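Re: [ENG-882] Designed sequences occasionally contain unexpected residues at chain ends

Forwarding the minimal case from QA. Structure tokens:
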């Protein structure tokens, strides 16, 4: 599993920004956290997940994806909340 890109580089602190995460090895029932906060992940296909950003504190945010087997992948400073 790998994260290649995140469609939105900057999101509002209040959340609600639409995100598209591109990569590989994604699976149905994938879980997503942004800045340590869980948000609903929508599995599109093995290369695409969409989500809405949660409310976040200011600064760079890490994205973590977890599949059902427990495998995780993260991307530090994947986006910035301001």
């Amino acid at each position: 599993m790998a994260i290649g890109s995140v469609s939105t580089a900057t999101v509002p602190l209040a959340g609600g920004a639409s995100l598209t995460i591109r990569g590989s090895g994604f699976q149905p029932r994938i879980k997503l956290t942004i800045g340590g906060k869980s948000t609903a992940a929508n599995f599109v296909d093995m290369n695409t997940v969409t989500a809405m950003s949660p409310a976040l504190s200011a600064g760079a945010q890490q994205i973590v994806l977890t599949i059902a087997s427990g495998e995780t992948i993260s991307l530090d400073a994947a986006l910035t909340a301001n």
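QA comment: On inspection the terminal residues look reasonable. The chain has a mean pLDDT of 96. Proposing we downgrade this to a documentation issue.
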